[in-house]
Amino acid sequence: MTVFEAAQGAGEAPPADAVAPRDSTAEAPTSVARLNGTIRDFIARWNTVWVEGEITSWNVRGGNVFARLKDTQSDAQISIRVWSSVRGRIPSDLGVGDHVVAAVKADYFVKAGDFSFTVSAMKHVGLGDQLERLEKLRAQLRQEGLFDLSRKQRLPFLPHVIGLITGERSDAEKDVHRNAELRWPQVRFRTEYAAVQGDRCVPDTLAALALLDADPEVDVIIIARGGGDPQTLLGFSDERLVRAVAAASTPIVSAIGHENDHPLLDDVADLRASTPTDAAKRVVPDVGEQRALIAQLRSRSTTRITQRLSHDIAQLEQLRSRPVLRSPAPIIDARAQELWLLLSRGRETITRHLDSAGRRTSELRASLRALSPAATLARGYAIAHLDGGVILRDAAEAPAGSALTITLDRGSVAARSEGEIAEES
User: Fold this and answer.
1) Which residues contact 278 (CB under 8 A, 6 or more apart)?
2) Is 101 exposed, middle or buried (0-12, 13-18, 19+ CB in 10 A)?
3) Where is the Exonuclease VII large subunit C-terminal domain (predicted)?
């Protein structure tokens, strides 16, 4: 059953000049007034409901309030109206960015075809409930490791460009610029403005963070705000923003000015600064301090080098004052005489060994000559060889016709055996 059928089924009589919406056709359409009336009558049956959300707009006109309420976990929104008769019964400090619960009843205005909710009661959401939810989220993120020191990045010593996310023309922006430029006049900034509270805080900050993190010239990003009560700092505990900061490749400094209560951004950022001024001091080195440090190091180096040179000169003078270096000639002369004696002894020993070796060589040469076959051949003897070089020692080894080689003192001749010759008696 449709909305219109349900309304008609309740017993309303259709106007005489219009067809009921459920009976309408192209030839017999219903009227706009009949359609709007049907919708109004159906919606009028809805009961009052309590709804929780964040006020994203709050406009007062003629004593009445026309506002919008946004779901804190999505982009869903509704229009609400607070009549002047109800305003006296709700807190007077309500405004954009407040987290509230409201008793609302659906209403449909027939003349304008406008659907909205009328508020009969509204109050702030208890801060304790919000903080409890934040603590649960904090515990979950800690368990995931997003707060671990091991994943936090080191800040550069001297950033070339500092990315700054803050409110436009805010005191936080002025504090960061003033203190950073006092410490290092040549410091450069790329600033992206964002709402620092209310409905636009999270989407604006996410967009600014994406732009700065994608810029290769930006070396560090500061997210700064000049403090506030826990209610106005809720945007900096939004899970989407916290996870985006954890995933950023550029080091991020949280500079939300506050004391006791701190948003989740502080826990996940690479560095937490207590105020925007503190952030500037911790991100940018002081040029005066650095110059003083350089002068101090230079003075220490000069003193250290001077002391080392003085020590080495004293050591050298001490060595030069020793007798061996003051008058080295006697020592050299004594060593020269000793060297000459050693050389003489060496020559005598070598000569004696050479003479002995020469005599021994002569003796061996004479023995070798006496045993050599060449000496025998020189006296007229010869050596007979069979084929294959075998020396003939027995006449029976060379029967008649055997080829022989006769080696003489000078050369060799070929011969052939006539057989063994009988010995004469």
Assistant:
1) 255
2) middle
3) 146-365
* Residue whose structure tokens are 């205005």: 109
pLDDT tens, residue by residue, 40-51: 888 888 888 889
d(CA 226, CA 171): 7
Q: How far is CA 196 from CA 223, 227, 412, in A?
A: 10, 10, 125
Integer Cα distance of 223 and 108 in angstroms: 44
How much is the pLDDT for 400? Answer: 84
Residue linked to tokens 């009549």: 83
Q: pTM of this prediction?
A: 0.49
Amino acid 266: pLDDT: 92
pLDDT at 290: 82
Tell me the C-alpha distance between 264 and 237, whole Å. 5
Q: Phi and psi for 46 in degrees, rounded to 5? A: -70, 140
Sites in the chain below the pLDDT cut of 50:
1-16, 425
Residue-level pLDDT at 192: 95
- Spatial distance between the Cα atoms of 136 and 118, rounded to a whole number of angstroms: 33
